[in-house]
Amino acid sequence: MTATSHKAGGSPIVPVAALIGGIVSVQYGAALAKGLFAAVGPEGATTLRLIFGSLILAVLMRPWRVRVSRAVLPWLVGYGVSVAVMNLLFYIALKTVPLGITVALEFTGPLLVATLQSHRKLDILWVLLAIAGILLLSPPVPTDHPVDLFGVACALGAGGAWAVYIVFAQRAGAELGHQTAAIGMSIAAVLVLPVGLVHSGMALFQPSILASAVAVGIFSSALPFTLEMVALTRMPARVYGIIAALDPAAGALMGLVMLHEALTVWQWGGIAVVMIAAAGSALTMRAPKALPEQVS
Fold it and tell me: How many C-beta atoms surround the C-beta of residue 96 within 10 A?
């Protein structure tokens, strides 16, 4: 989805507040999901998040009214697969890596896509900054506060899946528009369900777990999706991209407040560097486009 067309006039406070609210909502939902790990593990949490997220989006979007052509079907299936992989790797990373670091590492995937597609020398700076941020977040040398390397690899893998997801989202979204998210998440839920059942079994169906999963679905899907719709129709793509760069900071603050995940000065610095790279990429992009909405 892009924010290239937006309504003229009106107060800029409303779309900015809506987008920031969506960012906070997504990270709050991620923190809630991490609270489910003790009972169902990251695989079970991913399954529940995708199931309830897809159900909520289905109610909001009513995707059954859309006819999917054969031409777009491969792109739509690819979209669903990338959503499944992205969410699964993100939650596996979140098990051992603080939320803020996980979000920042994942964010480098679409950032690299956005900068490398432009083929301008200036964008090399943003790529180098992203790499510097990764090194600050997960230094290759021993430290007093090491980060789990497997978790780091999963977070970077989630970023790679997000990058692939952008390609599929653009192709499928050209025909299906907003319905792409609703249909694609349903495909992802079906794909991940066997993984969740194998790892978590009947624990997935405990009433207390289901209640928490509904909250995760609301804060991770329904609420941010609605708020982003308000922002995307009233905001230039460049502004959208700059504000979206706040995602890693929101994750770090939510991790600190809700999960008591304290970060080192170097880790905060790494998050700041990734944010600068993302904001710089959005600010200097020649033909600015907002990234397709992340459904993780």
Answer: 16
SS3 144: coil
CA distance 185 to 179: 10
Per DSSP, the chain holds a count of helices (H) and strands (E) of 12, 0
Tell me the C-alpha distance between 82 and 89, whole Å.
11
Q: Residue 210, SS3?
A: helix
Output the pTM of the full model: 0.87
Q: Tokens in use for 171? A: 């192709």
Question: pLDDT of 120-160, one tens digit each?
Answer: 777 788 888 888 999 999 887 667 778 899 999 999 999 99
The 10 Å CB-count burial string (b at 16+, else e) for 188-221 is bbebbbeebeebbeeebeeeebeebbeebbbbbb
Q: Which two tokens stand for residue 212?
A: 């928490």
- What percent of the chain stands above pLDDT 70? 89
Distance of CA 113 to CAs 53, 82, 104, Å?
Answer: 26, 15, 15
User: Are 125 and 74 contacting, i.e. CB atoms less than 8 angstroms apart?
Assistant: no
Each residue's pLDDT tens digit, 83-110: 999 999 999 999 999 999 999 999 888 7
CA gap 102, 177 in Å, rounded: 29
Read off the DSSP letter of residue 7: -
